[in-house]
Write a structure and sequence with these properties.
With 533 residues, the protein is mainly alpha-helical. 67% of the residues lie in helices and 0% in strands. Among the domains are: 98 residues, no CATH class; 51 residues, no CATH class; 64 residues, Serine Threonine Protein Phosphatase 5, Tetratricopeptide repeat, CATH 1.25.40; 82 residues, Serine Threonine Protein Phosphatase 5, Tetratricopeptide repeat (Alpha Horseshoe).
Length: 533
């Protein structure tokens, strides 16, 4: 009708109508699915320009009515005002839908129940709020609406995984994988895969790699992803991690080198290479890789912490200063402050600045009261500053979890407090956890001697001599005990001169030491357990 009107009207009116129709129709054609399929689109942006055309036509129609029915002109003005008010109120009402993502997607679902994208988007909103069960229900609904949507099945798998249901998560991931284009035997062909759909391989691979018996299956999955997308850096990194678990470190190293060919600006790759080198005992090369990671990202947390740990005993004060500066960057960002304070304390210990070390350890404990390594090292600082009584409360807070802490506590009871019964309890607790701990066994023998239990002391030293044959100090003390039993003379065994060394991390392997005359040597170079991405 409008086209006919424009054809029959004079040129000026015809031009206005054609202009309005063009604005209504042509901008909407691409989203209409008339020319080619584009999917289901629900968005105001599709109607911005068509709305302008509609306003042109309304204005032209109202103007024409005013010219024809002049005596009803007030009524026409009133009708126009009512129309504007109705549309304004509808616009205001619609604005409430735009307040949040959740209200926007819910408004879309009120219009249509057959759009998988709306269910998925609303599910992502629920995920971000921690409502994983509600998100799962929405993702499942999306798969019902569009069963061939790979992204919906991928979302279902992630939701199941978040809810601690790995079996159902794996099932959903395999369903998603079956929707990928199938290989054609004997043919080379290209196909397009949405980049985010490649996350399917990472999610399924991570799930499989949690089961040691399925590590080979996981690494084959990552290899398939790499074959599909040769520059898929995350797949290289994850496959290398699985290969390391399979004790195939050379292949893992090759994976990291391949990843570097595609992305030399990724600090995670350099960090993981550093961890691999560290596990192979190549500390200097590992330190260089951590340094490269920090040059790319000065705030890379794991590289910062491991760089600081490796430089603690490097003997190079300039490296320790650099490590301190880098840790300060991490501290300024407020990331893992308790571990940062602890490592800064260890650096201060190596520089001989016990005052700063004590301050850093106390700050670490303010943030995390059960930080065993900080408790022990703070006690050690106080002990070395001849404040053993202040060290005792911190050692007691370890509650027997830390063997070196028990040795130090036992030695304070023995040497400083002359409380041999308490010392005996400490040494016996150590031997329950490690029956072959020679320093603790020797010191237990000394405590028994001091309490006058000569027969028990002799039996104790015989056990120690059997575990550590040829140790001169044990043989000498055994000889003294036997002489004392024979002559009944007041001879005294020398007090244990154990000198606890530094424990450089809460996960350090610092509970078993050598069997020289000192209970411990100051080594302080056991790094924390390394973290792989």
């Amino acid at each position: 009708m409008l086209i006919w009107k424009s054809y029959r009207s004079d040129y000026r009116i015809s031009r206005r109508i054609i202009m309005g129709l063009s604005l209504c129709v042509f901008p909407y054609l691409p989203a209409s699915n008339l020319l080619f399929p584009v999917g289901f689109v629900v968005a105001e942006r599709v109607l911005y320009i068509p709305s302008m055309g509609f306003c042109f036509l309304v204005a032209q129609g109202w103007h024409a009515l005013c010219l024809v029915a002049r005596k009803y002109k007030p009524l026409l003005h009133f009708a126009l005002v009512i129309l504007l008010c109705l549309n304004s109120s509808k616009t205001i009402y619609r604005n409430f839908d735009w307040q949040t993502e959740e209200s926007l997607f819910q408004s879309g679902l009120r219009v249509t129940h057959n759009n998988a994208k709306l269910y998925n988007n609303l599910g992502h909103v629920m995920e971000s709020k921690g409502k994983h069960l509600e998100a799962l229900e929405l993702f499942l609904q999306a798969t019902k609406v569009q069963p061939d949507d790979l992204g919906s099945h991928l979302n279902v798998g992630r939701a199941y995984n978040s809810l601690g249901m790995p079996e159902k998560a794996e099932q959903a991931f395999w369903m998603a994988k079956n929707l990928l284009p199938k290989k054609r035997p004997g043919e080379r062909y290209q196909t397009h895969i949405v980049p985010r759909h490649m996350d399917l391989f990472l999610n399924l691979g991570n799930l499989l790699s949690k089961n040691h018996s399925r590590l080979e299956e996981a690494q084959e999955l990552y290899r398939e992803a790499i074959n599909m997308k040769t520059d898929y850096v995350d797949a290289y990194i994850q496959r290398a991690s699985v290969l390391l678990k399979l004790n195939r470190s050379e292949e893992a190293y090759d994976m990291y080198k391949e990843a570097l060919k595609h992305d030399r600006m990724n600090p995670d790759i350099f960090y993981n290479i550093g961890v691999l080198l560290l596990e192979q005992g190549k500390s200097l090369q590992a330190l260089a890789r951590f340094d490269q990671a920090l040059k790319l990202n000065p705030e890379h947390e794991k590289s910062l912490l491991n760089y600081a740990i490796l430089t603690q005993d490097s003997g190079d004060s300039s490296l320790r200063r650099l490590a301190h500066e880098r840790l300060q960057v991490l501290l300024d960002k407020g990331r893992q402050p308790e571990r940062t304070y602890f490592n800064m304390g260890m650096l201060a210990m190596q520089d001989g600045d016990t005052l700063r070390a004590e301050n850093y350890f106390r700050k670490a404990l303010e943030l995390r009261g059960d930080f065993d390594a900080a408790l022990f090292n703070l006690a050690l600082v106080l002990y070395e500053k001849e404040r053993p009584l202040e060290a005792v409360p911190y050692l007691k807070r370890l509650k027997g979890r830390h063997l070196k802490g028990l040795v130090l506590l036992g030695n304070i009871y023995f040497s400083d407090l002359n409380n041999y019964t308490a010392a005996q309890q400490c040494y016996e607790l150590i031997l329950k956890q490690d029956p072959n701990h020679i320093p603790a066994m020797h010191n237990l023998c000394a405590a028994l001697f001091q309490m006058g239990q000569l027969e028990s002391a002799e039996s104790c030293l015989l056990r120690a001599a059997a575990l550590a044959p040829g140790e001169r100090y044990i043989d000498q003390h055994l000889k003294l005990v036997r002489q004392h039993r024979k002559k009944s003379l007041p001879k005294f065994l020398e007090k244990p001169n154990s000198e606890p060394g530094y424990c450089s991390g809460s996960n350090s392997n610092c509970n078993r030491e050598g069997t020289d005359q000192n209970s411990f040597s100051k080594n302080g170079n056991a790094p924390e357990e390394q973290i792989r991405l």
